[in-house]
Design brief:
This protein is an alpha/beta fold. It has one domain (4-9, 25-178): Glutaredoxin. The protein is 37% helix and 19% strand. The protein has helices at residues 9-12, 23-31, 36-42, 65-68, 83-87, 89-100, 119-126, 137-142, 167-178; strands spanning 55-59, 72-78, 104-110, 132-135, 150-154, 160-165. A 6-stranded mixed sheet has the order 1-4-3-2-5-6. Helix 2 (23-31) packs antiparallel against helix 9. The longest helix has 12 residues, at 89-100.
Length: 180
């Protein structure tokens, strides 16, 4: 059995070749990106297998390999001290519910190098209902997380299709991915 601290999305959702990519997803990924300075780090990551993601200490259910396989995965990199992260929880809960039946999984990755010990307390206080876990700092570095929240979207083949999205663009990217 794979321990939660060793979860690696690129291994859990193997790329089975490149499907014909919807150009709308690429356009939305660029249009919905937070900052031009961040795009320099995030842009080259797109269209490649998602980096490794080490998670531990799950709340709201542990997400194992079988739960991610063949799913579109939204990773919400968040921090306990981050006001915008906390404010986005109700919308993230709605996204998780709305898209669950369509093969989309929303997971939280809590960590910024400080405050992770408050994850459970903050999750309870904000009503966070989707699975979330502490993320290793090596993972935030591999994903080039530069601000919180950072949203990433991985397609059914394990390919990173968007990262650094503004919260309002996550649903747009999901809608475009679902027609592929």
């Amino acid at each position: 059995m794979i321990r939660p601290s060793l979860l690696t999305l690129s291994l859990l959702i193997p790329a089975l070749g490149f499907a014909a990519e919807n150009p709308q997803v690429a356009a939305l990924a660029r249009e919905g990106h937070w900052l031009d300075t961040g795009w320099a780090a995030h842009g080259p990551m797109l269209g490649r297998p998602a980096p490794g993601l080490s998670l531990s200490g799950w709340l709201n259910g542990e997400v194992g390999p079988s739960a991610m396989k063949g799913k579109i995965v939204v990773v919400d990199f968040w921090a306990t001290w981050c006001g915008p992260c906390r404010a986005s929880v109700p919308h993230n809960n709605e996204l998780a519910k709305k898209f669950a039946g369509r093969g989309v999984l929303v997971i939280g990755a809590c960590g910024s190098g400080r405050g992770e010990e408050r994850m459970e307390e903050v999750a309870r206080a904000t009503g966070l209902a989707y699975p979330t876990a502490r993320v290793a700092s090596a993972s935030t570095a591999a994903w080039n997380v530069q601000w919180w929240p950072t949203y990433a979207v991985i397609d059914r083949n394990g390919t990173l299709r968007a990262i650094g999205l503004k919260p309002g663009y996550v649903e747009k990217v999901l809608d475009a991915l679902l027609v592929e």
